[in-house]
Amino acid sequence: MNNLRRIDLNLLVTLDALLEEQNVTRTAERLHFSQPSISVHLGKLREIFDDPLLLPGPRGMQPTVRAAALRGPLRQALAALELAVVPQPDFNPQQDAHTWRVAASDYSESAILMPLMAALRRLAPATRMAVVEHTPHRLMQQTGQEGIELVFHTSDEGVQGLRRQVLFTERYVLAGRAGHPQLHQPLTPEQFCDLEQIIVSPNGGGFEGITDEILAARGLSRKVVLSVPHFLFMKAVLESSDLVAMLPARLARANPLLTLLPPPVDLPEFEMYMFWPERVHRDPAHRWLRAFIKERVSGFA
């Protein structure tokens, strides 16, 4: 390593050319240097290797035994270095194989991934995607030690050291089954509170959310009779019972089994982000995926 620190990479390039050309003039022309510069390089190389390396001969310069032994390993080393520093090729989605690791909640799976999956398979048929459950309190661990490359998350608060992009702004609608007897027209807050309701509690077992805080400020409370951990379960219950729920609008999109009404109280919208670590920020395949997702989610807003 100490010897390597002494060597200018340009000197090794010169030595490789000298060993092939065995002529200072041709080496200078090949590398676009002057002959005196090549001679200076050769002098430094002789000092580094403690060997004359090339000696005058009847037909140009002749390599010493030491130089001849260097030729093969030097050529391989420079070829490997050229390969390492060559610009990264663009990602060709129709041909290139790649595996993406993505973390998503069941909301993100339904609102983001499912609607674009058919197009992803059509446009990038050689790729694979591993989707794992997103746990917000482990976001940094997932994108670090666990190798997750992309995370869908509803907030950027407390997220440090990750790249991010807003995908869309989500709103809530009041949802119940198609033909629900109480959902023929927009409801007043009081009418809403009389209905039995279902809530998603990601942390498990909760019966209150932002809707209840807003209702409480009006002196009202609703009848939450079922708490579930996932939106997929919530949608199935809504479609098959008279329970109603405040549902993110994208989850109810184009669902003939649901009736949708405006929320009876004003609820804050939320932004959906995608996050990714710096290590994949410039990766061509990852850049393609991010652009694809952003374009698709904007298209089916």
Can you put this structure into words, describing what you see?
With 301 residues, this protein is α/β, with parallel strands linked by helices. The protein has 11 helices and 12 strands. Helix 9 (210-217) links the parallel strand 8 (196-200) and strand 9 (223-228).
Please state the oligomeric state of the protein chains shown.
single chain
CATH topology of the largest domain: D-Maltodextrin-Binding Protein, domain 2
N-end to C-end Cα span: 57 Å
> DSSP strand (E) fraction?
15-25%
- Written as H for each helix and E for each strand, in order along the chain, the element string is HHHHEEHEHEHEEEHEHEHEEEH
In angstroms, what is the radius of gyration?
32 Å
Mean pLDDT rating:
90
Would you spell out the secondary-structure blueprint of this structure?
Elements: H1 2-5, H2 9-21, H3 24-31, H4 35-49, E1 54-57, E2 60-63, H5 65-85, E3 98-104, H6 106-123, E4 127-133, H7 139-143, E5 150-153, E6 163-170, E7 172-177, H8 189-193, E8 196-200, H9 210-217, E9 223-228, H10 231-240, E10 245-248, E11 258-261, E12 270-276, H11 284-299
Parallel strand pairs: 3-4, 3-5, 8-9
Antiparallel strand pairs: 1-2, 5-12, 6-12, 7-10, 7-11
Helix pairs in contact: 2-3, 2-4, 2-5, 3-4, 6-11
Features:
301 residues, alpha/beta, Arc Repressor Mutant, subunit A, D-Maltodextrin-Binding Protein, domain 2, 3 domains, 5-stranded mixed beta sheet, 3-stranded antiparallel beta sheet, 11 helices, 41% helix, rod-shaped
Brief rundown of the structure:
The protein is of the alpha/beta class. Helices cover 41% and strands 22% of the residues.
